[in-house]
Amino acid sequence: MSRRKWQGWGVGLVVYLIGNAVWAHDPIFGLGPHVLYKGGIEIAPEVHLNEAGNASTFESGVELTYGLTGDWAAGVELPTGTNKDNGSVSASGRGDARLFTKYRFWRHDTLGTQESAAVSLKVKLDTGDTNTTPALGTGTTDTILGFAYGYESRKWYRWASIRYRRNGTNSAGLRRGDKMLVDLVGGVRLKLTDYLEPDTVWLLELNGEYGKRAELNGVEQVNTGGTEWFLSPGIFWTKRNFAIKAGVQIPIASDLNGNQAESDYRAKLVFEWHL
Questions:
Q1: Burial class (CB in 10 A: 0-12, 13-18, 19+), 161
Q2: Residue 40 belongs to what domain range?
Q3: How confident is the model at residue 14, as a pLDDT?
Q4: What is the pTM of this model?
Q5: How far apart are CA 55 and CA 62, in angstroms?
Q6: Structural domain count of the chain
Q7: Contact in structure between 22 and 244 (CB atoms under 8 Å)
Q8: Domain of residue 214, CATH code
């Protein structure tokens, strides 16, 4: 490949990473290191669907993010509707809201590539309906601390992240088990496009979850906690300041404690609009 072409690709990458942050990519289910540019606003309606045995959950909401600096962003996830069905009864209403922030503490640019790393903090608030059957909120305030690394070039992407979720205790004395989340992700842009053209990146994620047993008034609950692994294909499509992210988590391994329904699948669809 000619030196001039490599230089052109490098200039193009810098333009879209620095001047047009909407082109920056993050995983669908995992955590990535990208943040908004200073003063940037992101509006992202999204839907989630989970099924495990006879139980299913459908959630819709909107994520609002603001770029405090070029390396620091903060926002809120507001639920717009939640429906849970456990096979015998179902309930609809309001789920739990979340506050979050992400700080990118390291970034390294070379010709045609960028590497970066960030830390994140998310707080799930006790705002959902808990007087329904099944309950739509957990009745707790939970915190999630994360670390993410990302590599991005004109064609190839890779990410790695780890998150720890610390769950609170509800008014009945139930404390859901803490969780460790691990994500390894690869991505490829099969067709190299110009900035003004629609752009597609294909993703494949490996998502692992390890959960401790829940406790009720200090007593461990047998049928809680365990490990699940998912293989998750997805797509990230962008055009200028608009993007669509979609993916599905397919379970490939499970070691749940006691008698629990294994996950059948999980799906996520996100529309992103940058201002």
A1: buried
A2: 3-274
A3: 41
A4: 0.90
A5: 24
A6: 1
A7: no
A8: 2.40.160.40
